[in-house]
Amino acid sequence: MAGLAILKRIYLAVYNWVVFAGWLQVLYWAVQTLRTSGYEAVYAAVERPLQFAQTAAILEIFHGMFGLVRSPVSATLPQIGSRIYVTWAILWSFPETRTSPIVSSLVLSWSITELIRYSFFGMREAFGITPSFLQWLRYSTFYILYPTGISSEVGLILTALPYVKVSEKYCLRMPNRLNIAFDNYFATLFTLASYIPGSPYMYTYMIGQRAKALAKAKKSA
Fold this sequence. Notes:
fatty acid biosynthesis, transmembrane helix, mainly alpha, fatty acid metabolism, transmembrane
């Protein structure tokens, strides 16, 4: 059992620092591109590390499912699911969205949030410590970064809507061999609607997590 616990810590430490490195590249290239070329070029500069870092987060759903971490899947799934959706079903699928200024606010919000989060968990798994300043950042910066990130996600989905409708990409029309119909435009509208209950739920969940984490830290101080 002790050997399994050590292997788990090594795996989680490696995972967190590798994804941290991915997000560090995203932030670096986003800032550099904003300084030198403008917001229109940000997506092209960060596309590969963004896709890598965001897609790697799918593993966190399985981490929760198999008990490697204590985070509930009910909280992990909607947050990661919405980001994967924006990364692949919006930005990758509809190039028309990539030059929007909203991409910059999205990338900056995501990357700063994730650099804090992955360094927090990376420090804990690799060294068994979490510096107090990092813990405060982990449980406080969401007050600003979560609304900016969510607003950017919604903004990009809205930007994509006309192109989703006109292109009919990923739509499945009847008749067909599977006898199934799928309209990506209405699926996109449904996804947008899911932000209405989902965003307040996640925000209040994080407020609750902050209160628990900081209270626990205060007791152990």
